[in-house]
Specification:
The protein is of the alpha+beta class. It has a domain of 79 residues. 43% of the residues lie in helices and 15% in strands. The strands form three sheets. A five-stranded antiparallel sheet has the order 10-1-2-12-11. Strands 6-3-5-4-9 form a five-stranded antiparallel sheet, with helices on both faces. A hairpin with a 2-residue loop joins strand 7 and strand 8. It is elongated and about 85 Å long. It comes from Halanaerobium congolense. This is Replication-associated protein ORF2/G2P domain-containing protein. Pfam families: REP_ORF2-G2P.
Amino acid sequence: MTVTAQNLRTTMKKNEDKAEGRNVATLNSIERDIKGVWYSRKLDLYGNILDEISYEDEIYRGGEKENKWKSKTNDNKPSRSKSTYTPTPEERIASNINQLKKKTWKLTIANIEDMNTFTTVTMGDVDFYNLFSSKRSDKDKNELYLADQLSESELQLLKGKTNLKYKKEKDRRYLNNSEEENYLRKKIINILIKQASSMISKIEESFVKDEKTFKSVSARNQAIKRELASRINSLLSGKSPYNIENAYSAFSKFIENLKNLSEAYEGDFKYIAVLEFQENGRPHFHMLSNLKYLEQSKLQDKWGHGIAHISSLNSISRPGLHISKKDNLKAKATKLSNYLCEEISETRKDSRTKNRKILLRSNDLLKQPLEVITPELQRQVDQYVFSNSVGVDWESGLIEGKGEYSKSSNIKRRVMEDSNLYSMIEQRAGQLLDKILEIAEKLNSDIITKDIYYQAKHELFYNDQEYMPATVAA
């Protein structure tokens, strides 16, 4: 594939407006397109973690499907002939799940320094009939079980109703279109005032925090009723909570609502989220973001389709996830990345996620994991590791390749004190790209050739001005 100087300039201009990690990816793309790449060692850098991956056989990138090659020849040596092997559907799914887990894990590690909170949002009941007639284990939702205090005819009136606020005009969603419905609305609110103690406590806490004052006890009670109606409304999805289209649409709107809340975060809004399903089949989203801690009611209002929970990264206590102030950044990153990846396999196997994204993120604003395959950049990594005495924290041992479609490998993981190496390699890749454009301009060439590429590497890494053949440089 032909690489032009103009296309490279355009790409690098776009990279300037994105988070770190694009220069190395651009360099890999150029190498693949102009000459193809054979390698048996790869370095993955994400945040303060370095994975050294050594393969038993060479891997090729360029032109054909990556890694789609025979692993051995008859004399047991690496083969550079194309394979006709086609993976089975099961192998494709397994590979997709594995890659998705790796991507989620690495993105979380690479961006943990910029994140502040962990949020979970769940699709709520479709209407008040479902909300008030279903028993649940969650304390807050159990307070909303009213079926034992309402008649069957009253429960039937709740079907299709999604708003407890008073409205003069007729609206099928509101519970006040008739005298009977208006009476039922007041009855429900009065029951909840007595029964939903945790919800009322949160409302009263918000009044204190916002320094709200009232002229009388009656005025305060009316304010509590209005706020209670709003919070109950936000627990409903208004649509089928099991429909995946509704879930994606609600989450997309939620992200837009948070982006508009500019005072709640610094710079641009960054997030990493994964889709999961509850045991009852309802979709919910876990999100790591740079959102500052929001009051629960405010977050609930921005979601507006069910239950929303937010926790500071300094203190999280949920089933399967416990983080305290004692945990350092490395511990937080490991716990959060493992938690986000935990249900990916089951989620991907659900037929509702076919051809859909499970990992949702503010892609351009996130630092990307670096895949270092350029020998000169690998040597710089090796020098850094040696100079700073960075030892191996974990080693995988031999990971057997599954069939012809993957290579046997070994992984050595090193954990550094900071992410300085990540930034250094990304910067160095950017310098090489600049050097490539500089030489192309000197030669008045719009095509990035192999010779231009190698000349740039020699000048930058070896201080060698004589690589370029005279006939080409002329």
